[in-house]
Amino acid sequence: METAELSSPALLTPELLERYAGPCPRYTSYPSADRFVPMHARGGSSGAPPWAALQQAQTLSLYVHIPFCRSLCYFCACNKVVTKRYDSAASYLETVLREARWYRDCVVEAPVTQLHLGGGTPTFLNDGDLERLILGLGEVFPLQVGDDVEYSVEADPRTLAPHTLDNLRRLGFNRLSMGIQDFNPAVQRAVNRICPPEDVLALTEGARARGFRSISYDLIYGLPGQSVTSLEQTIDIVLEHAPDRIALYHYAHLPQRFKAQRLISSDLIPPPADKIAMQLAATRRLTGAGYHFLGMDHFARPDDGMAQAAAEGRLARNFQGYTLMPADALIGLGASAISYSRDGYWQNQHGVKDYTAAVGGCGNAISRGWKLSDDDRLRQWLIMELMCRLRVERGAVESRTGAPFEHYFHDELARLQPMVDDGLVALDEIGLHVSERGRWFLRNVAAAFDAHLHRSGSGGRYSRVL
Q: Are the CB atoms for 190 and 225 separated by under 8 Å?
């Protein structure tokens, strides 16, 4: 990838960013999760449910949602429970492990090649309960060990202790993601998340010394009180720490939907023009320092496996974003967790109380989902090809549809025409290609092929692309 391309104002301009800045799904799944319909494991749906296809999975991913946090971050829109009472977390683990046992009869001996703990704050759990969780999962699923698997955990650097790093590494975790957001003290105060850079550096060095092979930082632009200058200063500090991967997310201020955000003064939110300037400035800093832009807010150092996979066309996506180790199926455990198989998706009850009651009653908490049609599978494949490999071959589409590419996707190609005119995508005799400039607008390109999104009255509430 040519980093100079992304730094050129002629190729990535404020005008272009503003043109495609509107709300759009993130496409960690297709259809997107807002399309899911009521569904549960006690019957009521026609045909085999999507989890029946777990029997054919040859490899598995596991996701465990740990919703607990010790303090409230005002910007956060995650499914979380803010509490200082640890006993609620301990009892929650019992429910998660009971749910895991419900899946025992749903799966064959498929090896688990990817495990991710998300939240909330997974490291809210003490070392003993982290061990209890992993050992308990190992009694149900064939957890693999070694360099050929990816075990990752999200962590809050404000509360992550060195002994917990030791424990995580001993349990097989080899990837660590830390939520930084911003290093500017005024911005940190505005979002109630104080974290000195030196603490993050010590944890980064400690994780590397313990053998974590990939360390990533989450950053956010558009936070209250941020400016282009302050964000550039944060980026400069991050570059000194040299994490392997960086996620640079856009802050969506939606206080009408997320109660915690009502604690942020709307007067402090940067205007859209400033947010665009921030993204341009941060991009130039990161690519100028050698990071490769993968798409969908993610950057990686050229020696990181993610950047190498992108260059070789081996990237994949799941509900945690880009991944090196796609599995045939994913089992999500915990409140609001989403699972998938080749036949569709299913999601647990959102609230912890509802989740706990459901698992206590019947062993699972499935509340809604989606069974894939043949057309869904085609569009799912096409969207993932575009997002991960930046191209889709005409012949591959036509072999799946039995129809000419332009015929099957006539309306979709019409929706893409403005992006063709802007140099974001191109169609030739080989197929559809996303340009390096278009890599910034993958959500918009994917949305052109979203049949559910473009149906009359389809609704849907999404975050803005920028």
A: yes
